[in-house]
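User: Quick sanity check before I run a bigger batch. Here is a single chain. Can you write out its predicted 3D structure?
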Amino acid sequence: MSDPREADPVALVEGIRAQIVRGGAVSPGGATREVVAALAEDALDAGHHILSSEARREIVTSVVDATLGLGPLEPLLRDASVTEVMVNGPSRVWVERSGRIEPVPNHFQDVEHLLHVIDRIIAPLGRRLDEASPMVDARLPDGSRVNAVMPPLSLDGPVLTIRRFPADPLSGDDLVALGAMSPEMLDALHLAVAARRNILVTGGTGSGKTTTLAAISAAIPASERVITIEDAAELRLPLAHVVRLESRPAGVEGRGAIPIRALVRNALRMRPDRIIVGEVRGGEALDMISALTTGHEGSLSTIHASSPDEALRRLVTLSLMGDLDLPWVAVADQVASAVDLVVHQARDASGVRRTVEIAEVRRGPDGPRTHRLCRWWQDDGQGCFTWCADAGEWLSAVARDARRGRVGEPG
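Assistant: Done. Predicted structure follows.
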């Protein structure tokens, strides 16, 4: 016997899911995928649904995903090639694969279904999404970063973005193999880390800043204590002695927020050899550059910017957002002293991410300025990494300091 809902697999899946939940056979936290799959099979048999073996298997998987997982998102999250999932309302879902964005047929039944899935994601994390708090940032147990926005801020329904990270983080050698940087660039950056240069990794959204920062941090000696500070913990460093700190938003009562700035200040009391700030985006910039100029050399951070020079200007501006009424000249001079190297990332039209420039930071008459050492040069579709003529002097100095073990140690 056929069922009129069989023409609509989504309705069939939802009907079976609701039947299983109403039956009380699935207790919160007590069901497994195998149990729910068996219940779905029984429901299909009881309903005499005429389905091919492949269609039946897909229905059962969808019921399990809808009951225990994230519904239409589950197949995408199981796909290792998907690096980002973007849900623009219940009927439009996009993914990023190999740096390219493409639509997929997955969709939600309605706005309520999408909000239910969002709540399933963020509720275990102690976060909420409602009219009083219509934006939320969170992190999944696997490290994926989640952002959700709902009306009235988003005009076309709830918007959900999930940025995923590979199970095995890319190493420096992986980046070289992918063409993201040259072997000489990787060697130079490893020397800069070993020489305790303060490095700022810059670029736009999705340009590979976090991946590059994690890859070059492999040159930090195993004996050093590293403290990472992030809004949503993403960094997975290949180091033995790492302390991970994560900021906390305000609770339901509007209290209890622990911002990045407070964590930076606290990290200074935790005997760090190096401090890594996942992303500088506010007044914590002033505390960070103060730390970098008072004995915490060799630290790393990222910042959104369109060029190395713009990154330094933005760092000055963010530092001025602190609660100290400091003159621009004083802050700019401190930034020039705090940052030694800027590594700039970019993603081209084909979706390829690479390090497009490495620049040394120097003190100028009007604040910090950059001096290019290496860049990605492209002409007529062909590209290559090229070093500037005077980069040799910088490379020699970095190699010397790396051998000494720290900047300024007597030779």
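Residues 1-7, 407-411 have pLDDT under 50 and may be disordered.

User: Great, the batch can go ahead then.
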